[in-house]
Amino acid sequence: MQALITPQFATDLILQHTPTLPTETIPLKNALHRTLQESLHADRPSPPFDRVTMDGIAFRAGEESSHQLQIHGLHPAGAPDPQPLPAKHCWQIMTGAKLPPDCDTVIPYEEVQISNNIATITAPYQKGQCLHLAGSDAPTNQILLTPGQRLTAGHLGLLASIGATDIITTRIPKITIITTGDELLPPDQKPLPHQLRRSNDITLLSAIKSWGPAITNTQHLSDTLDHTISGIENALATSDLILLSGGISKGKKDHVRPALEHLIGPPHFHGIAQRPGKPLGYWTKGSNNETQILALPGNPNSTLTTFHRYAIPLLAKLTGTQTSETITLPLASPITPHHKLTQLLPAKLTPHGQALPLFPQNSGDFLTPLQATHYLEVPPGNNPVTTAITFS
Length: 392
Description:
It is a single chain. The chain has 392 residues and is of the alpha+beta class. It is built from 6 helices and 26 strands. Helix 1 packs across helix 6 (300-319), helix 3 (200-211) runs parallel beside helix 6 (300-319) and helix 4 (225-236) crosses helix 5 (256-263). The longest helix is centred in the C-terminal third of the chain and has 20 residues, at 300-319. The radius of gyration is 30 Å and the shape is elongated. The two termini are 27 Å apart.
């Protein structure tokens, strides 16, 4: 293992060496959670006309006599402009309808009594109420979405409204998850007293799925150098990102670094001054770093924590996704930092908006992190701290 570096320096190295994948054009219906790589503009004002926002009556303010108006007819949503409205008359009108050009106010049915084709206004009103005015959201050609945005359901609805049916996005990343360890069995097998059921592959698969779209593949390697070299070599040919779990420490059966050095060469780094996840290593392959390799420690808590701290920023850069600013949260009670290592701690949010750090017993503790809603990063120091930044 090399000299330990800080988490920030490790992040900087990863982002420096991570390219952004090429783009592709996909149908709008397939664009959910994909990363947009074009600017999209309003094709006409939004809304495109003065839109009625309540079912009720439409009229010219001030024309009513003793709060009463004669109903001239029905003006539904989707209808073109009607004939001019006679004085002291109103239209019954529907939500979403285009306001007739000679009307300026809408009163909802809840504030009108209708009898014998006469509408009686029963509550005070203001001229111009219950209207969504043309262009009040955006004028024609205003930029609505910019490159780097992860598309949500709301975004897709907006894109449909402007007729954007073919969307330029980043290609979906191809990710291979490689787990290691002779002591690990598939979850459907009964372990002997000295064995464990494998969990990191499903954990990482699920974490990737929670992050966003990806083409994923998994394999498990036995603890031999030849098998480790062969497995990684196969993954290098088909992957944008390889996530290894285990085999990256100093044990006699830890073959990940020797295998990667045989196939690629020395790492960009191996070892971070943090807990958990100190042995994490990072390699790239290709003239443009086409394949990214993160070698995560194998203990479950270390694997998941380092995925969130390092793999998610890597994936954001790989897909050209905008990242949010880090958030600093007050702590429910002060904690004393480690004097040399950055602590990466699961935490849960209290009803008062404070972060309550959780302290797993060790890197193999499954249960404690399950309570977490956030991860905290606490730099080394000698004095108690009352705030911490969050990640992922």
